[in-house]
Design a protein that fits this description.
By secondary structure, the chain is mostly helical. It has 22 helices and 10 strands. The strands form 4 sheets. A 3-stranded antiparallel beta sheet has the order 3-4-5, with no helix packed on it. A 3-stranded antiparallel beta sheet has the order 9-6-10. GO terms for molecular function: actin binding.
């Protein structure tokens, strides 16, 4: 075998062993888990899939740990499964450290991580608690734990049994004698060890497994075939042996329990009296603590400063006289409890557990609660003392401020009772100003009365001892304050008519002044000399219009107020001496407003017309420049040197036509604006009409040039497509020519028959291809006619080189000289777009390179006016035509198919 095959075999073997170990562990761990789950009537069928929802895993952990993990989710959705498994992993994390295991791995059925998780559970709950003393005669001797302790236990129990040598948890158990020895060491009545055959591994293993299962109740989680291998899996052996250890350890514990009970009964008789004394002392102390806590938690304090001060004195007496003896009594109870515990411990008996509620801890808890209540009462008494002191201060402040407010109310009531004199505008204005001063003085005191009311509310809410008197005084002051505000409103109502009248006069004067300023500005005749200036003037006028609109709203408001005054009547109504004067002023104001609005509208119309005119001039200039630029592009004569170039030029021309189509709508709009200006009789209508005509003429030139260029490009594309098809036809004929001209007629009848069949197929292909040649011939006639109409030479699109000495029209030389002819390299001009074209005359030396190509005959041929031998050299001389016909095309194809470049 090669190295590669050896490596592949080794890799395959390793993979097979790994899969076998995974299968064995899966089977063993499944049986181990089912041994616990059968208690709740649950069963795992596939370890890798049944744990995915987390419900069985959670139940397994609850059974093996004895703890409650809560109710699991339904486990239908993936997120519910992940949540269940995460709860299991969080619980395990509190018991043992592990990493690299995620809930998603368990839900997705990762075999190795699931086996690792089960093994972690086995180690923590089955093996970790196993400890063995190295020196069995000493209780405090050195100990081993976990797997080492389990191995030591197996070695001690199987020592001296023939055929048993336990050194590990792998191949030491292969023959099955180790399991039988463990059972015989603890229960020799269950089996006859001497009758076992050391060579019958499977029989020994099955015997031990069956006895353990049927007699001891240890589940059979191993199969004999999985153990009887070269190297059994260590994890499954450890798991099964741990079950033996737990069973026999429990059996030993039950045997030693009876002896201890008798000793404990005797000791309990000696400490019963001590326990009775302890319980009586504890009961009395706890009852005192409960009574004191109830008294200390009482917050029914006297509602006075003197009463709170007395309560503080009583609390200090309790802390200094009553509490210290009880503290010493608590110490005696604890001493009694520890004496009982020491007595029980000396006799090796279980510690004394007092009745519920009489533990030392209960006394400590009650004492802490007592101290907490003491602290709470002390804080409450101090807070209440502070509150009572603050209430006394607030009461004194309320009495002082209430007296000040009552005195001020008396003064203001006298002022508001004075009569109002308003016989003319001057007296009205003076009365209004005086009222405004009085109103400002009164309203400024509103916060002070509100503060007085808040002070009274705080005293009432704080349960002040004289809260009823405070509430009554506050109501008296607030009633007088409300009566004062009512008088102020009545006085204000009587002055409102006069005040409104004066306000309207002032408003009319203000609007008249502003209206005069606006009228001066809107009467300007300047409409600007260009577009930017006109737009600036239009923006300024818009601001004036906004100002005028605001003035209009103010005038309308004055008209409404006047109508309201007339409707309400009273001192400000039509009977007042100033009412007629108000009517005259308001009428003049309305007339001025209408006049200014008319002037503003005329100014707006003139500016709009000027903007349209200047915008028309700018737009026509832009369109003229654009049309001139595109006209130069449409006049280009280049049609491309090949089919790809022609297609690119046609696509570019189509883009130009699309741009023209979109631009034409804008041109029509511009011309429409100009025609509207002409119809409206604009002063520059002559210039506007000339600009419209010039723009339309320019567009006509552009459209004609674009149509002409499209025709030329389309014709050129047809010609280029024709020559491409002709080149393909030439290639096909060149390919078939060697078969037609071959002088191979076969060496016998069979080969001749084969050649004849091939020739017949070739003849059919040639006849079928004749249709393509006919199409090209007809197309050439149409192209020649189109070229004549558009002055395009077909030779311009030929892909073969031009002969030296040929005429400009593509005709061959008349002398028919057969000497070496030179090939002329012709540079085809390409169209290049530049932003600016500068015409300039330049003198330049041009070096022309001429090549004389030669061709070599690929096979002998005679016919069509030529005779050549195979390998003969000849100058390159294809036939060039002015008019394309089928016979000339055939001769060119024949020539190209016989010769190849030398």
């Amino acid at each position: 075998m090669s190295n590669l095959e050896t490596q592949n075999f080794e890799k395959g073997r390793i993979k097979a062993l790994q899969d076998e170990r995974v299968y064995i562990q899966k089977k063993t761990f499944t049986k181990w888990a089912n041994a616990f789950l059968e208690k709740v009537r649950m069963e795992i069928r596939d370890l890798f899939s049944d744990l995915a929802d987390g419900k069985m895993l959670m139940k397994l952990l609850e059974i093996i740990s004895g703890e409650n993990l809560g109710r699991p989710n339904k486990g239908v959705l993936r997120v519910q499964k992940v949540e269940n498994v995460n709860r299991c992993l969080k619980f395990l994390a509190t018991k043992v450290y592990f990493e690299n295991i995620g809930a998603e791995d368990i839900v997705d059925g990762n075999p190795r991580l699931i086996l690792g998780l089960i093994w972690t559970i086995i180690l923590r709950f089955q093996i970790q608690e196993i400890t063995i003393d190295l020196d069995e005669d000493e209780e405090d001797g050195e100990r081993k734990s976990a797997k080492d302790a389990l191995l030591l236990w197996c070695q001690r129990k199987t020592a001296g049994y023939p055929g048993v040598n336990i050194t590990n948890f792998s191949n030491s158990w292969r023959n099955g004698l180790g399991f039988n020895a463990l059972i015989h060491a603890h229960r020799p009545d269950l089996l006859d060890y001497n009758r076992l055959d050391p060579n019958d591994h499977i029989g020994n293993l099955n015997h031990a497994f069956d006895v353990a299962d049927q007699q001891l109740g240890i589940p059979k989680i191993l199969d004999a075939e999985d153990v009887d291998v070269n190297r059994p899996d260590e994890k499954i052996i450890v798991t099964y042996v741990a079950s033996y250890y737990h069973y026999f350890a429990k059996m030993k514990t039950e045997m030693t329990g009876g002896k201890r009970i008798a000793k404990i009964v005797g000791m309990m008789r000696d400490v019963e009296k001590m326990e009775d004394d302890y319980e009586k002392l504890t009961s009395d102390l706890l009852q005192w603590i409960r009574n004191k806590i109830k008294a200390l938690n009482n917050r029914d304090f006297p509602n006075s400063l003197e009463g709170i001060q007395k309560e503080l004195i009583m609390f200090k007496e309790y802390m200094t006289a009553e509490k210290p003896p009880k503290y010493r009594e608590r110490g005696n109870v604890e001493v009694q409890y520890f004496n009982i515990q020491a007595r029980l411990k000396a006799n090796g008996q279980k510690g004394y557990v007092p009745p519920e509620g009489m533990l030392v801890h209960d006394i400590e808890t009650a004492w802490l609660q007592l101290e907490k209540s003491e602290h709470g009462r002390e804080v409450a008494l101090k807070d209440e003392l502070v509150r009572q002191e603050r209430l006394e201060q607030l009461a004194r402040r309320f009495s002082r401020k209430a007296a000040i407010r009552e005195s001020w109310l008396s003064d203001m009531e006298q002022i508001l009772e004075e009569n109002i004199v308003c016989n003319n505008a001057a007296q009205t204005e003076a009365a209004v100003k005086k009222h405004e001063a009085i109103s400002a003085e009164i309203l400024a005191r509103k916060d002070r009365f509100r503060a007085l009311n808040s002070l009274a509310s705080e005293l009432v809410q704080g349960n002040y001892r004289a809260k009823d008197k405070v509430k009554q005084k506050d109501q008296e002051v607030m009633v007088r304050w409300k009566r004062l505000l009512d008088k102020l409103d009545a006085r204000k109502s009587s002055l409102s008519g006069f005040n409104d009248l004066m306000s309207m006069f002032r408003e009319i004067e203000s609007i008249t002044e502003e209206l005069a300023e606006v009228e001066t500005k809107v009467k300007a005749d300047d409409c600007g000399k260009h577009l930017q200036a006109t737009e600036d003037l239009l923006q300024q006028h818009a601001l004036l219009e906004s100002q005028l609109a605001a003035l209009t709203r103010r005038v309308r408001k004055l008209n409404r107020n006047q109508a309201k005054l007339i409707q309400d009547g009273g001192k400000g109504g039509p009977g007042h001496r100033e009412a007629k004067h108000l009517d005259n002023k308001l009428a003049d104001l309305n007339k001025n407003l209408e006049r200014v609005q008319a002037v503003s509208n005329a100014r707006r119309a003139n500016l709009d017309t000027a903007v349209r005119y200047y915008q028309f001039l700018v737009d026509t200039e832009q369109e003229e420049r654009w049309a001139a630029e595109k006209l130069e592009e449409a006049k280009l004569t280049s049609v491309g040197k090949d089919l790809d170039a022609g297609l690119k030029l046609l696509k570019k021309h189509e883009a130009l036509e699309a741009e023209m189509q979109g631009r034409w709508r804008r041109c029509e709009q511009i011309c429409g604006v100009g025609q509207d200006l002409v119809n409206q009789g604009h002063p520059a209508r002559g210039e506007i009409g000339a600009r419209i005509k010039s723009l339309m003429d320019r567009w006509k030139q552009l459209q004609d040039a674009a149509a002409t260029r499209r025709t030329r490009l389309e014709d050129a594309l047809e010609a280029q497509q024709y020559y491409a098809d002709a080149n393909e036809a030439e290639s096909w004929m060149k390919e078939k020519m060697p078969l037609v001209c071959s002088d191979d007629y076969g060496k016998d009848k069979a080969t001749a028959q084969a050649l004849l069949s091939r020739h017949n197929r070739l003849d059919q292909d040639i006849r079928a291809f004749k249709v393509e040649i006919k199409r090209l011939e007809e197309l050439s006639v149409l192209m020649t006619k189109a070229a004549s109409e558009h002055n395009i030479s077909p030779a311009k699109f030929l892909s073969v080189p031009v002969e030296n000495g040929s005429a400009d029209n593509g005709e061959p030389r008349a002398d028919g000289d057969d000497k070496d002819e030179e090939e002329e390299v012709v540079e085809v001009p390409r169209e290049v777009e530049v932003e600016e074209i500068v015409e300039r005359e330049m003198m330049q030396d041009v070096v022309e390179t001429r090549k004389i190509p030669q061709v070599r005959a690929m096979y002998p041929y005679k016919g069509q006016g030529m005779a050549v031998e195979k390998g003969e050299l000849e100058n390159f001389r294809p036939i060039f035509l002015k008019q394309i016909d089928q016979s000339a095309l055939h001769r060119n194809v024949l020539y190209l198919s016989i010769f190849t470049i030398a």
